[in-house]
Amino acid sequence: MRRAVAPLLAVTVALVLADSAIVTLALPDILVHLDTTVAQVAWVLISFNLVLGLAAVPTAVGFARVQPRVVGAVGIAIFAAASAWCAVAQSIEVLIAARCVQALGGALALVGCLELLVALYGERRGIATWITAGVIGTATGPVAGGLLTQAFSWQAIFVVQVPFAVLAVPAALAVRTGPLPTPAPATVRHRPAVRPNLTLALLSAALTAALFLLVLLLVNGWSHSPATAALAVSVVPLAALAARPLARLLHPSAEVEIAVGCFLVAGGLAGLALLPSADLAWTVAPQALIGLGLGLTIDQLTAQAMHLRLPRIEHASWTIGARHLGVVVGLVILTPVFTADLQDAQVPAQEAITALVLDAPMPAQDKVSLAEALGAELTDQQGQVPDLHHASATADFGPEVRPAAAQLERDLDAQLERAATHAFRTSFLVGAALALLALLTVIAPHRRRPA
Q: 38 or 211: which carries more pLDDT confidence?
């Protein structure tokens, strides 16, 4: 039974935590399909992370006396039903509501799956499996979402989760355990580990810049397809997977490993802020630093926050809350910064576009008609990185003008790429500052309590 059930439970943990970022590469498609704005579509991410972050600890406390297999099975079933609801949502409001229900089911599933994995594998291996599954899900979520969006649609992200979750329900019910342990408060109930949870929250806020804003830059700013963007951001999970073997080779202490990881994340985000051009190759090294930092920090911090603390599930839920509320803080901080910078960049971009149209070797009448079409597109797409291909495609140019029009379109694309790259700069630097704050919580002197 262990061979069949435990992997399904681990996949469930990965699916739930992947959902914190799995829709990232689908956000541009959701933005267009549901006719919304960048600020509104951010709530597809914010709602899930906010509800999961707030519900994790109350769920662990409230269901402490319920059998883990029941908690897990009910949570997985709710998660599956809400995933199907997300897939059929026809408005941004409905999608956000479905994501909230999905997060509630996910909180129950995570609480139940931890205890079930411990029952199947033993405490040490069960906790390690739960933590590792979560790290893998978080790191690979955006890549999987982008590939599914490109191959099918953004709805496919939610459709494929349903059969996995449905299979996991009987798997959870098949594990025989007693109720979750509830130790006596006066003897073995420990306080939450403040420092590692605070570091987790700050680091998660910083990683939001890499998981959310980088995708918007690649798809909306640089006009890459979701599949291309997914392959580009696959550098992060690959580097995260390489981090553990590297750490075992070097044998650093846990504190050094976490500090180095925070510094690498900050350096990678600073590198994304200083990209010299809109070439995907320039993003590889910064993403590799971020991925290495992710792999060195998240599992170590989670293990520190849970180490020798009882009740086990409550302290695990504190790590879930810290991570996902950190994501919310990151989105709340970074989204207004990004949208304000994008708004500020519109006037210079419009002036540069006007200059390019005026200087183009085209008849005056063609310039006027093209300028009117471009102006209408810029007006309709305020608050977004504009896509001007429709204006060029609808223009009726004569055969002798088409080469100049094609060159003008390339020049316009290059100008928009430069404007978008500059508009994201401040947000990436803010993300780097959040990672440095996380580093400060690691290297700050510890206050020793008397024995």
A: 211
Q: What burial letters (b/e) apply to 227-253, b meaning 16+ CB within 10 Å?
A: bbbbbbbbbbbebbbebeeebeeeeee
Domain span at residue 274 reads 193-451
CB contact set of 442 (below 8 Å; sequence gap of 6+):
195, 199, 255, 258, 259, 262
Residues sharing a CB contact under 8 Å with residue 251, sequence separation 6 or more, in sequence order? none
Are 88 and 149 in contact, with CB atoms under 8 Å apart?
no
Per-residue tokens: 2: 């262990």
pTM recorded for the entire structure = 0.81
Distance of CA 147 to the CA centre of its chain: 15
Q: Does 361 map to a domain?
A: yes
CA atoms of 388 and 243, how far apart (whole Å): 41
Same domain? For 169 and 307 the reply is no
Q: How confident is the model at residue 353 (pLDDT cuts 50, 70, 90)?
A: low
Pair (249, 163) in one structural domain: no
Total structural domains in the chain?
A: 2
Contacts of 395-400 with C-beta under 8 Å, sequence gap 24+, read 395/366, 395/369, 395/370, 396/369, 397/362, 397/366
Based on the domain organization, do 446 and 316 belong to the same domain? Answer: yes
Q: Are residues 412 and 374 in the same domain?
A: yes
| DSSP assignments along 420-433, one per residue | HHHHTHHHHHHHHH
What's the farthest any 2 CA atoms get from each other in the chain? 86
Backbone region of residue 308 per phi and psi (left: phi > 0; alpha: psi in -120 to 50; beta: other values):
left
Q: Which H helix or E strand runs over 437?
A: helix 425-443
Closest CA to 11 of 124, 157, 171, 120: 171
Q: Are 327 and 38 in contact (CB under 8 A)?
A: no
Q: Do the Cβ atoms of 228 and 141 come closer than 8 Å?
A: no
Same domain flag for 205 and 145: no
Q: Which of 16, 245, 41 is nearest to 138 (CA)?
A: 16
User: Which CATH number belongs to the domain containing residue 303 in this structure?
Assistant: 1.20.1250.20
Look up residue 241 and give its amino acid.
L
Domain boundary among 177, 211, 228: 177
**Residue 186: inside a domain, yes or no?**
no
pLDDT of residue 429 exceeding 90, the answer is yes
pLDDT in tens, 402-424: 676 666 666 666 666 677 787 88
Above 80 in pLDDT, residue 258?
yes
DSSP H/E element including 400: none
Q: In terms of domains, do 395 and 267 share one?
A: yes
Residue 256 lies in a domain: yes
Is there a domain that residue 184 lies in? no
Of 152, 177, 202, which marks where a domain is finished?
177
Residues 226 and 356 grouped into a single domain: yes
